# Entry
Amino acid sequence: MMSRYRMAGLLLTAMAAGMPAVILYGCGRKPSPPQVGVLMLDESRQPILDGLKEGLRQLGREVNVDLRFVVRNAEDDQTRLVPLAEELAALRPKVICALGSAEAVAAVPLAQSTGVAVVYLGVGNPEALGIAESKVDPLPGTTGIRTGYADRLPKRMQLATYFFPDVRVITVLYDPQTPASAKGMKLCEETGPKLGLIVQSIALTSDADVRYFAETMVPGKYQLLMYTPAPLLIKHLRNIIAPAAIRAYVPIFGLNRQACSAGAVISFGPTDYGFGVQGAHFVHRILLGTAPETMPIETPEGSQLELCLNMKVAQRIGVVFPPRMFELADLIIR
# Structure
């Protein structure tokens, strides 16, 4: 270590030569901003990342100034998630943000093995996936935002009775291999009879199942479609399920605003962007030194929930909402 006398001598020499002493003292380098790792399955997670950046900006942290993102995208290949998570952990970031359930399953074990903090943003059922102790209690080194999509399916069914008063049968798509999806299906089956509705369940477990369902959808076969939170269904909503439903004049009740943008007629729930904004405070506090596990898992509430109507699709398939229902909408796509 350089003695204070030696340092003082160098500073005096530098000043005599007209060099800024502060540059010599700091070796002319500004400390690098802390790294925040980001693990994403594909580009569909981009709204979560955008919300995370905005949330951090609101907290006074500018990207590439106060922190630096290191992003790893699996490009829709789940087999790449674990290697990419390990690659991020090897960089020793302050925290890894997992943008979804598949990403969280890949990243959370690294909190134990490497000591890198993990925050997951938008996980349907973390305790069932084995990445949380309970609904609110995270595992050591982790915390995050649960979607609450499955928990709100009964509310969506209630809203369906308001917006579609003539509908008596609701067809619910689910993937029994996904815990949150199976839970949502059970809630629908319990809620339907209480609302005077018949619930018809259709299990889809593969890409082929989804394509077959879409190919066999014809006008008059279904009154209203809902789907539970499952990566398989969300992935195919825009390009397979929604186009088939529109051709068959069947309205879809979606999980969030992204569903309306993808072709659903109505949706109720939090936005992917909101998961990012809400999760930013976890990242902010971890960067300040807070242990992740001391912050309970959160669920979007209140102002983060929105009801969206897609009038373009509604008009195309002949859906007419009761006029008073427009007062309930937070967003109307025209």
The longest strand covers residues 117-123. Confidence is low (pLDDT under 50) at residues 1-5, 19-26. The CA atoms of residues 94 and 287 lie 7 Å apart.
